[in-house]
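Please fill in the sequence for the structure shown.

STRUCTURE ENCODING:
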């Protein structure tokens, strides 16, 4: 037998018992006449004790040969510790070791297997199996498992059926590039890996499955960031005979259930915010509503007073950073302005106003505006003495995006993004289509299967170009703390409307038929009204744990170049494989 207990479960009540434990050597502390060893497994750490009085010389010598990460089995007696450690659950006891087997030796690990490791990202990824031994990574994976199991419980309880959809499919245009797989049996032809099971889940609704879900891998060949991976997981759902509000209620229910059961956090009801409002108030379709600092538009007060920069701007808009006037020296404000002028943000400049305690103002635009003028801005922005006003101007859409960056940065600096504070909301009524001047066609803001609002359907079938620009989508995103957790929509289920959408998106009827004939055809056999949503599963796990990177919630993630540095993928394939797959061989390539 390898163990009677695990390394996390022995307590005072076990004192006197003879036990067997197996695990990894975390570290040893040799004091000469006695030696302590921390034994670790997934469940915890237990202290082992060897001492001259009770341990045979032979056993002591053997213990001294142990290095970090050796795998051992010990037999011994649970005894009360002389000096207790209240930082770990097993801290009241230790094991007086009477027998020791070395089950496997270990080379010295390339980084320390501790909560705070000295290993850099690349090294940790190369030896991911060692990295996963570290408690923070292990806990993240355990957390993920918990969220997955609870999601299944909730959805099954609501009558959802888990259906698996294929991974070798034909490309669905959802905005990203496809990963493709050559077909040996169909020379010159390729499958695509699904960017999502979108069309399949819609077909399951046509098939009468009514409520579908799947915790499913999706593949997108995009440039990577901390919160993106080429393969990631979604909680993907679809429902028939539902309105938008029923979908929202269901998935608000799921989100609340997960926070409650996994984190013991009660979330309040999720407010709804229109896309236009989100853009106007926060300059973002995923606003972080843990703090205010909402945008205040100043066109009516700041334009036409002789300050050319404002006069030429489409929008003058600012935020009020409460109590920050004293904290920012001229030099700090210069640095902040330069931060805003970096190419990543691209602001031309930054106008600031300090509201002094005596009701006067100090600002960069004092030459152009009287204290009376500025007082009006301060009033509109609800500013108090001690506040700092930060104002941008320019083309409306760009300026809002820039101010969003500044608001988030100020929120961070002012400590307004409190860990443990969760502020979910639904963003609704996105534009359906975005006009692409260069390509001379529209893009779908969500994807091509999203329906317009019911009142916009007629307009979509019959309206002119301008009408198309103003159509609203029956789509929704769930946002928590500035992170898009998921999104979905009520779908088009009518062939004529879907054909019209493809046309607006630049498909000829032949192209639409070739790519989506199966779906258009299915719509002719009694497709019910339906809609759904998908949550980014890795992302919701990270957000629930207050983390920004999804990497530690994925057992074997890829790096920024899309590489798995542990198995060294992607890699070249054999010449024979090229031939078998009817691909151009590398030999030909070199000629
Ligand atoms: N398939 C969509 C996505 O992956 C989600 C949905 O519309 O249900 O974003």
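FILLED IN BY: designer on duty
SEQUENCE:
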């Amino acid at each position: 037998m390898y163990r009677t207990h695990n390394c996390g479960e022995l307590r005072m009540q076990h004192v006197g018992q003879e036990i067997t434990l197996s695990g990894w050597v975390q570290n040893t502390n040799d004091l000469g006449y006695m030696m302590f060893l921390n034994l670790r497994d997934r469940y915890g750490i237990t202290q082992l004790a060897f001492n001259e009085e009770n341990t045979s010389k032979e056993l002591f010598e053997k213990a001294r040969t142990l290095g970090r990460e050796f795998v051992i089995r010990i037999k011994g007696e649970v005894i009360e510790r002389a000096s207790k450690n209240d930082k770990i659950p097993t801290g009241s006891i230790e094991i007086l070791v009477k027998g020791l087997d070395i089950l496997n030796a270990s080379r010295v690990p390339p980084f320390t297997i501790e909560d705070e490791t000295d290993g850099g990202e690349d090294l940790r990824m190369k030896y991911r199996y060692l990295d996963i031994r570290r408690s923070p990574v292990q806990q993240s994976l355990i957390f993920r498992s918990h969220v997955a199991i609870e999601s299944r419980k909730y959805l099954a309880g609501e009558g959802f059926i888990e259906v698996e959809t294929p991974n070798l499919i034909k490309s669905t245009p959802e905005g990203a590039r496809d990963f493709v797989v050559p077909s040996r049996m169909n020379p010159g032809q390729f499958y695509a890996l699904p960017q999502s099971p979108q069309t399949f889940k819609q077909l399951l609704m046509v098939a009468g499955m009514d409520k579908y879900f799947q915790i499913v891998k999706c593949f997108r060949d995009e440039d990577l960031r901390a919160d993106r991976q080429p393969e990631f997981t979604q909680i993907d759902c679809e429902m028939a005979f539902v309105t938008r509000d029923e979908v929202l209620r269901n998935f608000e229910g799921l989100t609340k259930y997960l926070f409650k059961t996994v984190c013991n956090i009660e979330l309040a009801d999720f407010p709804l915010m229109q896309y236009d409002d989100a853009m106007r108030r926060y300059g973002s379709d995923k606003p972080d509503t843990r703090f205010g600092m909402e945008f205040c538009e100043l066109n009516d007060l700041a334009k036409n007073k002789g300050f050319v920069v404002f006069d030429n701007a489409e929008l003058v808009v600012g935020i009020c950073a409460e109590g920050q006037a004293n904290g920012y020296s001229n030099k700090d404000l210069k640095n902040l302005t330069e931060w805003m002028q970096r190419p990543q943000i691209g602001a031309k400049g930054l106008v600031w106003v300090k509201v002094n305690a005596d009701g006067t103002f100090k600002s960069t635009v004092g030459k152009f505006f009287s204290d009376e003028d500025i007082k009006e801005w301060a009033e509109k922005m609800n500013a108090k003495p001690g506040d700092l006003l930060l104002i941008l101007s320019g083309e409306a859409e760009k300026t809002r995006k820039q101010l969003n960056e500044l608001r988030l940065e100020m929120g961070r600096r002012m400590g307004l993004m409190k860990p443990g504070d969760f502020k979910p909301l639904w963003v609704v009524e996105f534009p359906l289509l975005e006009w692409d001047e260069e390509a001379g066609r529209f893009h779908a803001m969500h994807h091509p299967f999203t329906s317009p609002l019911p009142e916009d359907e007629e307009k979509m079938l019959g309206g002119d170009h301008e009408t198309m620009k103003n159509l609203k989508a029956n789509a929704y995103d769930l946002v928590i703390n500035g992170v898009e957790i998921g999104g979905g929509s009520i779908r088009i289920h009518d062939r004529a409307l879907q054909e019209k959408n493809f046309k607006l998106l630049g498909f000829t009827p032949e192209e639409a038929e070739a790519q989506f004939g199966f779906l258009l055809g299915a719509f002719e056999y009694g497709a019910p009204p339906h809609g759904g949503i998908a949550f980014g599963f890795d992302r919701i796990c990270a957000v629930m744990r207050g983390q920004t990177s999804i990497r530690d919630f994925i057992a074997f993630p890829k790096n920024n170049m899309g590489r798995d540095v542990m198995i060294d993928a992607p890699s070249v394939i054999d010449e024979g494989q090229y031939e078998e797959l009817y691909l151009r061989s590398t030999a030909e390539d070199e000629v």
